[in-house]
Amino acid sequence: MTANSQQDGKSRQRLTLLAARARRRLAELGRRQPVRPGPTLNESLAQHGINRRDFIKWSVAMTAALSLPAKFAPLTAKAAELLNRIPVVWLHMAECTGCVESFIRTDAPTLDTLLFNYISLEYHETLMAASGWQAEENLENALKNHHGNYLLIVEGGIPTAAGGTFLTIGPHAHTGIEICRKAAAGALATFAIGSCASFGGVQAAYPNPTQAKGLSEIIRQPVINIPGCPPSEKNMMGSLLHYILFGSLPAVDRYNRPRWSYGLRVHDLCERRGRFDAGEFVQRFGDEGAKLGYCLYKVGCKGPYTFNNCSRQKFNQGTSWPVQAGHGCIGCSEPDFWDVMAPLVEPRKDRLFRTAFRGRGADATADKVGLGLLTAAAVGIGAHAVYSVVRGNFSNPPDPGGGKKADAPKEKT
Ligand code: FSX
Ligand code: SF4
Ligand code: F3S
Predict the structure, then answer these.
(1) Residue of 174, 145, 169 whose CA lies nearest to 92
(2) Do both 318 and 379 map to the same domain?
(3) Within this chain, do residues 69 and 184 fall inside the same structural domain, yes or no?
(4) 411: burial class by Cβ within 10 Å (0-12, 13-18, 19+)?
(5) Which domain, by its residues, includes 225?
(6) Does position 397 have pLDDT exceeding 50, yes or no?
(7) Residue nearest to atom 6 of ligand 2 (CA)
(8) Distance from Cα 331 to the centre of ligand 1, integer Å
């Protein structure tokens, strides 16, 4: 037997064991009653004109997105049907609420959005009608009644300066820190949704007066980070489904981001990558290159430094994503992107790639790739410059906005 066929045999065996584990898990969840009575998933999809065939197609796509083989698709579909068996508590801290708004404010909901309606939200500050004392009581009841059995989802950064009093919520004046710690203590698993809950977000930008932090820095329990400002609904729903399927958290990178969704750079998956490699760059927003769909690196795209799957999952019902819409990636799923990716419309070029993330230094992978890429990009851009001058790409482009220039000749090689 060759080494390769031995390897194949082992991975087949691993997948068989994984499938058996998922089946056992789903059978156990299937014996539970829905947390609240309501329509089945099929009924609720039918109400929105989504038929079984669409659902099967979705489950095949989601299975592939989760890096599972196609034979897991029926299990993914079953996991989606059982999403209403586990209660969910969803908290808001310091943020713009854009994460949840991006899921719920849609006139043409995708299947992921509809699944979001289907989960058993026992407490959700944006969606609930209650306020004041009633809201606080609802949260206390949810944490007590489902202690040890709920999934906790947190949006927003948590201010920690002055004992956390910058974020004081409700009639009992609990701080965000207290609420998160209490809720995490009784949770089965905890998810930080958005870059604010993952890394502190916009309120943690320099000089971070409230000392806002990501959830993982204030609680002891493990946290799965689903960053992005906002993150894609697919990345969020896929991570929940992974938990339903296997009863465990997915493999993560150093920043606790699931590898299945944050394992590759935006640059690796970008439809304009051929333009980058060919040295075809937009020089200014609105120029000829912009109309032709050239690479946005020189107008600030941070795709080479950013790990996310935006070009695959897209936004707005899967219609587009930043680069497709004509703006560079601003690195919104990276720690401290407000600081380390700024200025957002200028290239990083020869600036050192260092994340200031809590003094921990850069992610090993991102750093290696980033630094390697910096060198490559510096050399590459130099080569591109020569190549593109020949093509006329850099020849006195117009400056419609009169803004800052990001011309190739300034670049170091
Ligand atoms: Fe932050 Fe989300 Fe950006 Fe906004 O809740 S990740 S500011 S989209 O809303 O937390
Ligand atoms: Fe795409 Fe940006 Fe990379 Fe250019 S630099 S290929 S626009 S991700
Ligand atoms: Fe954010 Fe960049 Fe994707 S800005 S949405 S990570 S393309």
Answers:
(1) 169
(2) yes
(3) yes
(4) middle
(5) 21-262
(6) no
(7) 273
(8) 14
